[in-house]
Design goal:
alpha/beta, two-stranded parallel ribbon, 14 strands, 37% helix, 17% strand, binds NADP nicotinamide-adenine-dinucleotide phosphate
Length: 315
């Protein structure tokens, strides 16, 4: 890469996906900053070549202290507590704050990681970016509201927003059902036919970079792998790989307490693939084969401490 194409990049919410994305951007020669609330992850960010920033985007005044201007901004904050109030504060108010801040500091691209949970289809049908996205849960509606804010900013003032609707993320250390299986706690819900849509963390990272490099502002892209899989098939394949018995079916009482509003759909990734994105883990089989191998050869983390830039004013 020539120096003239090196970008200043800000990753707001530099966690599981953010660090993997930042590492690749640094390797490509970009100058990358990663914002989190806590200082504890500074070493992890710095070891990936990312300059750690500490602050909270729900505090509007924080943004003015960020070391801008930036060429590319990614917002992949995640609501750790998960309730509607937290979603409203992090996704919706956070997006309001970011839009106000960037109205004075133009960027070339802005990518927001939304979720495929905004599609509430539960009939097993295929959904693409033109399909209705009408979430039934309040948290899902808040994600859509944040998308709508960004798309309106694009329509009204050409704000270069791109929405990436991400499926269930798995990868090293992540994958709830797989870990339940390892712990002997997995249950097949219902008849096991509900479809799950997944994507490996590293493929989310390359999708974010494809969106930054080639995504069209004002567009939505689904980010899921090539193969929606039923819960039964997923558990059966992984159990076979691990040499374990198929887990039992859930009891009626367990099924009755299952999370409501679970969807059943096939998320299409055609539009993202047309952008040139090629997933390294096209199905859960490649993704979990790698995870099983990694679990058998755990890498040793190096301790490396980085200077932390705190954006929180001193008392
Ligand atoms: N997990 C999934 O299956 C899934 C599915 C669809 C979409 N997504 C979306 O994908 C994105 C990436 O997810 P992830 O797994 O990488 O999340 P993650 O590991 O939880 O990382 C999110 C990061 O956001 C930071 N953060 C949270 N609130 C913040 C705030 N108010 N100000 C500044 N930073 C804040 C956290 O910092 P601290 O650690 O310091 O708190 C954390 O490092 C998220 O937008 C998520 O909603 C996830």
């Amino acid at each position: 890469m020539s120096l003239t194409s090196a970008r200043r990049v800000l990753l707001i919410g530099c966690g599981y996906v953010g660090v993997a994305t930042g590492r690749r951007l640094v390797e490509a020669g970009h100058s990358v900053f990663g914002l989190r609330r806590s200082a504890g992850a500074a070493a992890e960010l710095e070891s990936a070549g990312i300059r750690p920033l500490v602050g909270d985007i729900t505090q509007a005044e924080l943004l003015a202290r960020l070391p801008g201007p930036f060429d590319w901004v990614v917002n992949s904050v995640s609501s750790s507590r998960g309730g509607a109030a937290e979603y409203r504060s992090v996704y919706l108010e956070g997006t309001h704050h970011v839009l106000a801040w960037l109205s004075t500091q133009p960027v070339a691209k802005y990518v927001y990681t939304s979720s495929t949970s905004v599609y509430s289809q539960n009939d097993g049908s295929e959904v693409d970016e033109a399909s209705p996205a009408e979430p039934t849960s309040e948290t899902g509606r808040l994600l859509r509201d944040a998308e709508d804010l960004l798309l309106a900013a694009h329509r009204e003032r050409q704000f270069p927003a791109i929405i990436l609707r991400v499926a269930g993320i798995y990868g090293p250390g992540r994958g709830h059902l797989f870990h339940q299986l390892l712990a002997g706690e997995a249950r097949i819900a219902g008849d096991g036919s509900r479809l799950m849509n997944m994507v490996h963390r590293d493929d989310v990272a390359t999708a974010l970079i494809a969106a930054l490099e080639r995504g069209r502002p004002g567009e939505i892209y689904n980010c899921a792998d090539d193969l929606p899989v039923s819960q039964f098939d997923f558990l059966a394949w992984n159990a076979a790989q691990l040499g374990r018995p198929l887990p039992p079916f859930a009891t009626e009482a367990e099924n009755a307490t299952r999370k409501r509003g679970l969807t059943n759909k096939r998320v299409s990734n055609r539009k993202l693939r047309a952008l040139g994105w090629i997933p390294a883990f096209p199905t859960y089989r490649e993704g979990y084969a790698a995870a099983i191998a990694a679990a058998q050869n755990p890498a040793t983390e190096l301790e490396h401490h980085a200077p932390v830039v705190s954006l929180t004013p001193r008392a």
